[in-house]
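Summary for the steering committee. One of the milestones for this cycle was to obtain a three-dimensional model of the protein with iron/sulfur cluster bound, which we needed before selecting residues for the alanine scan. The sequence and ligand used are listed below.
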Amino acid sequence: MLIHPFKGVENYLSPSFMMKNHIIEVVIPEDIDSGTELSSAYTRKKRVKIEADNSLEDQKGKIAGQKLTGLPDIEDFSYSKAKGSVKSRIGPTTKAKLSAVSMDIKKETVSVDLKKEATLSISINEGPPANWEKVLEGIRKMRSSDDAPVDSMGCEKAGSFLPPKERRFAVLVSSLLSSQTKDGVTHGAVQRLSEKGLLAADAIIQTEEATIANLIYPVGFYSRKAKYMKRVAEICLDKYDGDIPNTIDGLLALPGIGPKMAYLVMNVGWNDVQGICVDTHVHRICNRLGWVSRPGTREKTLTPEQTRVSLETWLPKDEWDPINPLLVGFGQTVCKPLRPRCGDCSINKLCPSAFKEAATPISKAKKTSPSKRS
Ligand code: SF4
């Protein structure tokens, strides 16, 4: 039964709401008593309808925007939270609003959207993104002053005054220390190790773990990294005569060394570019630019490894080595993690994520608050 001006409906039952063709119908059992106030039932019904309509518009807008541009939303970005189907991209706010509502979106509409999305994702994964060369050139110009921390204190700068074998070990140690740590802090720790002659495997194994931990403090996880340094030094002495492994697999077998570091060390230490070094800056910026996506989808990548694989499908190999310091410095100075300086960014007309940071959850909440709507 479809209801209109019922009196005090909420005093008697919990109506079930069905959303059909974007219109809310309030279904009330036949035996309801209609003897109370009209106004509250009217107000409540109106509010629920507006909220549901707004939510639907939000979702339609989001989905339409994604179809057009394949854009990642900065504020939705999560490295660890998996997102799947179109339905699963409905945000938590919408889910909460509709928790008492049974959604009945027409199945044929969703299936058409999915087909379109699949087609688009195939085209995205098949070739380079539009305007990537212009974007890259724009970033190069913004980075021409070389004023980012990575330019003077990045891992690849470690031990640059040393002979090749010692330098490789210094780059390996610097990479190990760099995770979860700012470049300046890593650089300071490497300098203190260097002053004590502790950028060599044999010197490290002769030094107390606690001494190493004190020297590298305050790098992130300094105690664990001191332990890793001792173990790495042992392995390098035992297996590689004090040098470092010359393969990705060999490097990944060392404690505390992940893909990001392994590719960097191969590039810098052995001048052997086997892959792109993707850290958190490269990962974030590539997603903001719409340069990467998960295989077979238009979704953002969830991990730096997914970003590396996606980026390597289209980025020319001669860009694999320079792209890391270029984007790391860009991320440190302009395209920052929390508040990217889109107003100062020369590629903001080409970037699908430009100025999206302004659409914070707080401002969205203000836009959709009942008092603003009424
Ligand atoms: S426009 Fe903004 S989000 Fe896009 S690359 Fe520039 S700073 Fe980053």
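Key point for the committee: Residues 288, 334-335, 340-342, 345, 347-348, 351, 353-354 surround iron/sulfur cluster (CB under 6 Å).
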